[in-house]
Amino acid sequence: MGSPAEDLLLELQEQEATAATAESLTGGKLAARITAVPGASRSFAGGVVSYQTEIKQRVLKVSDEIVDEHGVVSAECALAMAEGVRRLLGTTYGVSTTGVAGPGPQEGKPVGTVFIGVAGPDGSEAHELALEGDRFMIQESTVDRAVSALRAMIGSAGRQPEEPALR
Hints:
With 167 residues, this protein is α/β, with parallel strands linked by helices. 42% of the residues lie in helices and 20% in strands.
């Protein structure tokens, strides 16, 4: 077993799958973590750093309704970002990060409120996190958790349903 990013890329390669990132609060750190692994280009297509709301909407196609009703620090926005980057870059999976790294609250949500979105061929899911620490620690923890969330989705897609036991 290598690092979590190495293991992620190995799982993608084993499934002949690809991934892309859509990042807000992590500012490209997730893509940097993945591309630090030699040979990442076999499975990692690229990413979008959509720090501003307008970029989330224009490039990733996060709808006005999501922004108006839920805000950009929300599960709904994380899902739309992950689905948007998957569609935009034509990958098997998309993973997104959005949230509040500090120094102060955003959209009435406290520092450390983070949402990770993961989209794949069998659906999408969002994960809400309540992280502690300074801006750097929140960003690093978010990257760790995003890699884990994507690995979990890939792992569940790679498992075959169990055969019913014969009686």
